[in-house]
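Fold it.
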Amino acid sequence: MPGTDLSCFKAYDVRGRLGDNLDEDIAWRIGAGFAVALGCRRVVLGRDIRASSEALSAAVAEGLTGQGVEVLDLGLSGTEEMYFATTHFGADGGICVTASHNPMDYNGMKMVKAGSAPLDPATELAHVKALAEADDFTAAAKVGRVRPAEGARAAYVARVLSFVDIAALKPLKLLVNAGNGAAGPTFDALFAALTQNGAPFEVVRLHHDPDPTFPNGIPNPLLEENQPVTAAAVRAHGADLGIAWDGDFDRCFLFDAEGRFVPGEYVVGLLAEAFLVKEPGAKIVHDPRVVWNTQEIVSRHGGEAVQSRTGHAFVKQVMRDTRAVYGGEMSAHHYFRDFMACDSGMIPWLLVAELMSRRDQPLATLVDARRAAFPSSGEINFRVDDVARVVAGIEDTYAQHATSRDDTDGLSLAFDEWRFNLRASNTEPLLRLNVEARGDTGLLAARTEDLRRLIEAG
């Protein structure tokens, strides 16, 4: 009903439970509100494979065209294809209908404005929400139309391939797990172009076909319980590199030839090195959760490390402000200056394959030394009754002994041989802890356990 609060609007995007706080009427209102708030004439629209996405996408398109907007329809696509096409076609904005890795009964939308820039949460996204809630739209004198975004995928593939020197690639066997999400068709287009240009890759596909029933579970390879299937397939097929994506493939996750999952913070370090070899002195953006490995690699290769708050809107803004060549988060979001400062799940694995080729080393060799030098706990999540009280208690216990402190995002305290970051989630009711150390796994385990006990004690 008009005037009701649309609780599907979150900090940076739209996510809601179908039939509860997200349906086709709400999608129509969001499409119309997006058009009015941004003054759009042309908008790119994509969608993931979820059963509800086609109908929700059609409703968004109807809301947009009712305000006179021309809609360039990507159909089934990844969020990053929407990012690319928005700039490629000079559109005023882009929307991807996707729930990524959320439960089956959820869906949502990721939105950008011209230049594929994120909407400012406090002004632009809030304006879209207010208009959608008011539901007081006047139809345009001339209704817009929907037409296919012709040539979008071919142009996207060309842009992604521009990040690597195909001639430098060596024979590698890839195991790819699309999780029955949207990644499969896009990977196939990318792989076909790689093959045509002489890339000596062999590929084994797992759970490759898009399937709205997700017969193998919702694709979220960050969850530890979802990793064994990819790991086992890597070992069974003798692959050199395992790659898995989430539902809209704006995140990719890597496995070495032994089937071991590579934590995101070490992938950030690898990609920082890959870019600094090509562009000495470049700026590299990282989030504040786990930093020592990335900072050491950037320093050793003559780059400049720049810290950002966690979250895509913050990282993208810092990328744009500093013209950093690359930015990475340990959550497997990787951002690229020459990809509209947006995140991609296809560019990272290509760059890692190129680095493996140039160094003539397996992924395990590239990563193991970094894991030994800077072991980390991985992100540990806690549900607590009073986040502020718990953080204050940790601060009282540790701050007086710290050698440095950083409040960029949560509480970060560093000591001579270890460091931790404790922050409230931007998107969930959780307190997140990350601990890292300098080459001492025993110290890491002890300090992590100390913090865990204090947090759980409240």
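The CA atoms of residues 127 and 272 lie 36 Å apart.
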